[in-house]
Amino acid sequence: MTALPLADTGLADRLTDRLARVETRLVEAASHADHLADATSRHLVSAGGKRLRPLLTLLTAELGDGADPRVLDAAVVVELTHLATLYHDDVMDSAPVRRGAPAAHEVWGNQVAILTGDLLLAKASALTAVLGPQAVLVQAQTFERLCLGQLHETVGPADGVDPVDHYLQVLADKTGSLIATSARYGALFGGCPPEVVDVVTTYGEKIGLAFQLADDVIDLTDDGGLTGKRPGTDLREHVPTMPVLLLRRLVGSGAGTAEDRRVLDLLDGDLSDDADLAAAVRALREHEVTERTRLAAEARANEAVDALGALPEGPVRDSLVLFARSLVERSA
């Protein structure tokens, strides 16, 4: 079974087998002769995960010749890059848990966690070089966007920039860029024509936004089973999310009610106490801005599906549609 919903059992069996091969290569790529580096680098690999990005690479490669061995290498590259960003993000966000396990910085400290992320990026870069100059350029452009997204998230919107628009751009850079590259690599090394590569790249960018907006909802509605994070983690750390930004915009416009202001005051308060955090999560979950965020995720998923219209009909396109829909359904 794969974490991606697939429309054909033959396709599912084929991708399950190929994903197992990617997993083996991923473990090998994250391994080091140095004992400490080996332990820290394999920490998140061993914690598991849905492997959505490499799965997407394998799936879009099926639009062409999915058997090209470079597809497997590309799938490893995108997951290594993703894992590296998780090490860095958890330090930036002070997240205590990742995928049900203690975050690396909780075990080894911030500096070791950051350096481990850098090691994984070095591994990804070396493997990308084997894929050729075009892949190196794509990887560099993707990494640039990942860094810009983190930079802009850290600094916040400039004067005169709408915080909601700023946040959507951060999501596009931090999440959409790598998912788009995952889809692009699959089609590229699957031997698809340029127009197909462009279609799946656009699709990947849009589902990246849908994915993260859905996660903003899940952070308020799930018990942690879907994201591997404690509910309300972002609220406790005062990390901006779409529901909070929409509420802040509502109150700032003067159109908010006294209840809206009460909820915002609650979110802006000290949420270190578990009871206070639970009350804040409950208040925001029940507010209309959370449903508006879910609808925004649905709209991005619909745009992603619309982008697939140029692809040939068949189980691959059907599976891409199912994947886009499932991103929103998990937040319902």
Automatic annotation (TrEMBL):
Cofactor dependence: Mg(2+)
Top-rank lineage group of the source organism: Bacteria
InterPro entries named among the record's database cross-references: Isoprenoid_synthase_dom_sf, Polyprenyl_synt, Polyprenyl_synt_CS
Keyword set, alphabetical order: Magnesium, Metal-binding, Transferase
PROSITE patterns (alphabetical): POLYPRENYL_SYNTHASE_2
Pfam family, one: polyprenyl_synt
Family affiliation: Belongs to the FPP/GGPP synthase family.
Protein name (record): Polyprenyl synthetase family protein
Lineage: Bacteria, Bacillati, Actinomycetota, Actinomycetes, Micrococcales
